[in-house]
Automatic annotation (TrEMBL):
Gene3D superfamilies: 3.40.50.2300, 6.10.250.690, Winged helix-like DNA-binding domain superfamily/Winged helix DNA-binding domain (1.10.10.10). InterPro entries: CheY-like_superfamily, OmpR/PhoB-type_DNA-bd, Sig_transdc_resp-reg_C-effctor, Sig_transdc_resp-reg_receiver, WalR-like, WH-like_DNA-bd_sf. GO terms for biological process: regulation of DNA-templated transcription. The lineage of its organism: Bacteria, Bacillati, Bacillota, Clostridia, Lachnospirales. This is Stage 0 sporulation protein A homolog. Residues 126-226 bind DNA. One of its GO terms (molecular function) is phosphorelay response regulator activity.
Length: 231
């Protein structure tokens, strides 16, 4: 059935999205406020949620946070606010993509398909990935270091998973950006990626200043070394 939930208080925008998705073969449900969206999410399953940040009785950040405590459903934020802090905060909370208003419907459809493609790819891969002393449980989206849980933000997890799924390969910065957010946009850029790499290293490396897991290949990008390189 491919059900998608649209949470958008502007009824004209919601209707336009609903019509476009129907043309693509998706079934949709529409909510115009925080409370009704929260209730319907608790009682139904969706393949993806399109979530406006500004709602009349709450905000999308809180709703996304609530979703992430119970479900891994992909989330795309819609917002008129394109401030970098808000974008990064939304991605850290677990959003899979971020699109600002006004937007072209075809762009939104493209983003939806990209997010679903990436989500399905991650969930059909092996349920456990080991890199040195790091274990990634992809079914539960949990990471352990020496059998101890590591708390990662959603974006840190996506970054680690993107690198781990390409173990032994050098990934350019653009390839990594496309892996964690298919349409990289203006805000998940080189500077933001550098910050995420630094934060991730601080959590998984024994010595973040001399990383053995996520290696910088100067002039090219980053590489998670093959098993023979991790001692």
């Amino acid at each position: 059935m491919n059900p998608i939930l649209i949470v958008e208080d502007d009824k004209t925008i919601a209707l336009g999205i609903q019509y476009a998705l129907k043309q693509e073969g998706y079934n949709t449900t529409v909510c115009h406020d925080y409370q009704s969206a929260k209730e319907i999410i608790e009682n139904n399953n969706y393949i993806l949620i399109i979530l406006d940040i500004t709602l009349p009785d709450g905000n999308g950040f809180d709703l996304c946070n609530s979703i992430r405590t119970k479900k891994e459903t992909p989330v795309i934020f819609l917002t008129a606010c394109d401030d970098e802090v808000n974008v990064v905060m939304g991605l850290d909370m677990g959003a899979d993509d971020y699109i600002t208003k006004p937007f072209r419907v075809r762009e939104l459809i493209s983003r939806i398909k990209s997010v679903l493609r990436r989500y399905n790819k991650h969930h059909t891969n092996t349920s456990e990935i080991k890199i040195g002393n790091i274990t990634i449980n992809t079914k539960e989206a949990k990471v352990k270091k020496d059998n101890e849980d590591i708390i990662l933000t959603a974006m840190e997890y996506k970054l680690l998973l993107t690198l781990a799924n390409n173990e032994g390969q050098i990934l350019t910065r653009n390839q990594i950006l496309e892996g964690i957010w298919d349409v990289a946009g203006d805000f998940v850029n080189d500077n933001t990626l550098t910050v995420y790499i630094k934060r991730l290293r601080e959590k998984i490396e024994e010595d973040p200043q001399n990383p053995k897991i996520i290696k910088t290949i100067r002039g090219l990008g980053y590489k998670v070394g093959g098993k023979d390189e991790l001692h």
